Amino acid sequence: MAGRRGRNRDDDSADAPPKGKLNKEGLHTLRRLYRYFRPYRFLFSVALVLLLLSSVTTMVFPYVIQQLLDKALAQAGSGNLAPINLIAAVLGIVVVAQAVISYFRVYIFSWVGQKAIAHLRQDLYRHIVELPLAFFGRSRVGELSSRIASDVSMIQDTFGTTLAEILRGILTFGIGMAFILWTSAELSLVMLLTIPVVIVAAMLFGRFIRKLSKLSQDKLAESVTIVEETLQGIHSVKSYANEYYEQRRYGNAIQQVLRVSLKAAHHRSAFVAFIVGAMFGAVVFILWYGAGMVAAGKLTVGELVGFVMYTFFVAGSMASFGQEITQVQRTIGATQRVWEILDEGREPIAPPDAAAPMISLEGAVCFREVGFAYPGAEEIPVLQDLSFEAQAGQRIALVGPSGAGKSTVVALIQRFYDPTLGSVLIDGKEITTYPVSALRRQMALVPQDVFLFGGTIRENIAYGKLDAGPEEIEAAARQAFAHDFIAAFPQGYDTVVGERGLKLSGGQRQRIAIARAILRNPRILILDEATSALDSESERLVQQALNHLMKERTTFIIAHRLSTIRAADTILVLQKGRLVEQGSHEALLAQQGLYAMLARLQFDSESV
Ligand SMILES: Nc1ncnc2c1ncn2[C@@H]1O[C@H](COP(=O)(O)OP(=O)(O)O)[C@@H](O)[C@H]1O
Ligand SMILES: [Mg+2]
Fold first, then answer.
1. Which domain holds residue 105?
2. pTM for this model (two decimals)
3. Which among 321, 437, 509, 607 counts the fewest CB atoms within 10 Å?
């Protein structure tokens, strides 16, 4: 829960991907991404060449400076500027070339990274929405959106930037070391005995500090969770008058954040002091030693300056290796998570064009000794030995205590899941013989809790038939008794609803869902407690709308209201996943069983 929102991609943020191992398997994981970069491999190679060029020119820089200084010292007092001007001109050209090359190098790398990653992101999204519901049962939505957003961004960073930096680092290190050794083996030895020690110490210190700052981030995330929870549940906070309790809870959390953050600040300051002291100390030491060599005539001034500059380059590349390796490890982790999703089996859905044969159903549904358990909870049977038959055009009511399996039955009809045992037949054929999408396009569901997409009312209704024209949409809304309240809004059908828009009441949302279902014109209609959350006025309207909708189609109704159930052709009474009674309202009442009892309990208030 902690830190779901407000994420950043800091190395150690709460939901940064786990570090992957930098071994053969890890590299293989990364290599699978090649498919996305393949179309750009030519440009990528160009960028690599530019990288090589720019690294080499950078590394020539100190050498030219070295020449400049030595020439200047050799000419000291002579007034002859020609050699110096020549070298300065060369330096100037190097600078300009460097700038131009860098522009193209950085731009091409990011361009390739962005292009490839846009493709990957789209593939990932496409794949996720095609995954079966069972997958969403085991994954958290927040986590999935984080895969699309931050994991993929991490891959993008690595391929757009880090990879280039690593190559550059290797080149810088190699060329720099070669120059240093070539300039003076003795001074190189002195350098190698000091600088790497300082760098390793700095890395260990840095790791310790990152742990501390991770701790303070985690604490902060906890406090953010408190804020989120209280604000989301502000109704409950207020109605229980627990403002002071929440204030104290948040106060405690903030104190903890403060304590850990101050400790981290303390260590961070020490770290900076260490870097300044140790790094510059090492440089002073090398300069001192080198100056001695200059005095002894073993080194020129230019060579010493060049040496120190190369030392900075070499040290810089060593220092960033650590971070870059961590980044690559995290990218392996991120990539593994991405492949995990892409390797999940999709539902056999089909695109809504000619490729998917439009089937046209009669709408008969038959369950034959169906047994079912939810994936991941196989030991809990939800439906057992369930058999029933619904003729095309019939109204079937499902009744039973909550948790009896009513919603599960209609989930199987929509083939959100496949039965564990037995079979579901549609029009006498196994449900599995139909293309899933074609099947679902012949069905419509009006649930208890209608979800409206962020967008206009028009768009929300058109969700039932994406190519519906304005008249069609309005006609559907009229049939759903939704037109009047929609027309009363200043913006009418263009009123924006959803998370950022106007809040509609439960009854209004349900009528929009019914309009959606009317547009779809399904052969099989499923009403899962479509009226249970309504007040009696809107229920009356919704009921009228439903009566319209139920005509001439097979309808499964899960409802509490007697009026709805009484009109059904068959009532199926479920208890603990088993069919315990079935028949018409009168027949079931006469049986004096579970239905009669439920009827007495639930419907009493209505009959008076
Ligand atoms: N996605 C799911 N994963 C695991 N178990 C579930 C899931 N949905 C429902 N269940 C379980 O299946 C049983 C039947 O649920 P459901 O069909 O929703 O009952 P009803 O609609 O009759 O109230 C319940 O015990 C419920 O806990
Ligand atoms: Mg239910």
1. 11-183+323-347
2. 0.77
3. 607
